[in-house]
Amino acid sequence: MSLSCCNFVTRKEIKYIDLKMKRTTKICKPLLGLLLLCLFSILPTKAQEEASASSEKVVKPKAVADMTFTYAIRESDTLKLDIYRPAAGSETTYHGKQKPTILYVFGGGFIGGSRDEGYNREFFYKFIQEGYRVVAIDYRLGLKGVHKMGVGQAKVLQNAIMMGTEDLLAATLWITRYGSQVGVDPSNIVLCGSSAGAIICMQTIYELSNHTRLTRILPKSFQYAGVMSFAGAILSTKGKLRFKEPPCPTMLLHGTNDRLVVYHSIQVLNVGFFGSDCIAERYKKYGFPMRFYRHKDHGHEIASIIGESMTEINAFIKEDVMDKRASHIDETIDSTWIPVWNISPADVYK
Predict the structure, then answer these.
(1) How sure is the predictor about 16, in pLDDT bands with cuts at 50, 70 and 90?
(2) Where are the beta strands (DSSP E) in the chain?
(3) 14 or 136: which carries more pLDDT confidence?
(4) Is residue 302 within 8 Å of 254, Cβ to Cβ?
(5) CB 186 within 8 A of CB 176
(6) pLDDT at 343
(7) Is the pLDDT of residue 217 over 90?
(8) Rounded Cα gap, residues 333 and 11, in angstroms
(9) Which residues of 77-110 are buried (b: 16+ CB within 10 A; e: fewer)?
(10) Which H or E run contains 40?
(11) Which of 21, 26, 215, 334 is the one with CA 20 to 30 A from 203?
């Protein structure tokens, strides 16, 4: 539903956010060559598509957005968000408390994907059947149109990560301003991202925990209720991951053989790209609550199992986010039921 179709709010009352980007962080070129190899490799490939097609012969129900709004305009990019209400008759509370809104960020290697593609709406359907409200957002694809890999694309790569982070923060700002008019509680939001979207989610949590410049658009007291990362990572230009403030409750899922989004880390001098294994190590050092599900011998296909992870998702949200149990779970799962894609960077650069 377009903004003009909403009978409870007018275009004048809900506005988009128009912000300028200013980036001063510099990243050394040797690391960027490695990061390009990782991030470009998140692109959907023919092998992925064939694997997905073979495992999805049955038509699955898809959620349909109830509302669509423009949350920001960045030069030529109009960024929108879709809102999906909980399904009629679903259980929207747990222990007398309202279940959180899931704010989803799609994957696609910063070059493709969309907030409303059919694959995403299949697990949105599962979310709303469980009583969750879903917000799915656009973000700028910072590597779109880039076909050459090398240090010459260093600035583009740097911008891609931070652009996505900035856009997620802008969508969050929109929710803090107008969420009450569309049924979204800004204090009860759980981030969820896949692949490049998971990188954006984890980067946003890291920036927020360290009160960086990008996060100043949000109220000082703002914090997400939780974050769920399916094959994500964090970029740091200041050495090992350090947190000035505790991050929100976190759930990480990653394949131990992921060759597309780094599972452990890549670091040159003070600049590093830190995957879920390394993030978990730092959380343990600081004593932060988390759940980490390591999928043994699996690769980047773990980014695509959101819909198959409802047991873990419900447990995380109910126990850690809503009941605030502060779990410390680190499990290695022999998930033989998940098809292995066996995709390497060579599959992308033929």
Answers:
(1) low
(2) 67-74, 77-84, 93-94, 97-98, 101-105, 133-137, 189-194, 226-230, 233-236, 250-255, 265-268, 271-275, 290-295, 328-333
(3) 136
(4) yes
(5) yes
(6) 65
(7) yes
(8) 49
(9) eebbbbbbbbbeeeeeebeeeebbbbbbbbbbbb
(10) helix 29-40
(11) 334
Tokens of 272: 């590093």
3 state DSSP class of 223: coil
Q: Which ranges constitute the DSSP H helices of 179-302?
A: 196-209, 276-286
The pTM is what?
0.87
Tokens of 30: 């040797």
Residue 345 scores a pLDDT above 80: no
Which residues are CB-contacts of 9 (< 8 A; sequence separation ≥ 6)?
A: 3, 178, 181, 182
The residue that leads in pLDDT, 5 or 15, is 15
Distances (CA, A) of 65 to 74, 81, 89, 135, 264: 23, 10, 17, 9, 36
Q: Domain extents for the chain?
A: 26-347
149 against 288, higher pLDDT:
288
Distance of CA 19 to the CA centre of its chain: 21
Q: What is the pLDDT of residues 37-63, one digit of tens each?
A: 555 444 544 444 444 555 556 889 999
User: Residue 159: in which H helix or E strand, if any?
Assistant: helix 154-178
* CATH of the domain spanning 26-347: 3.40.50.1820
**C-alpha to C-alpha distances, 85 to 97, 127, 129, 219, 268, nearest whole angstrom:** 17, 10, 10, 26, 45
Q: Which helix (H) or strand (E) holds 177?
A: helix 154-178
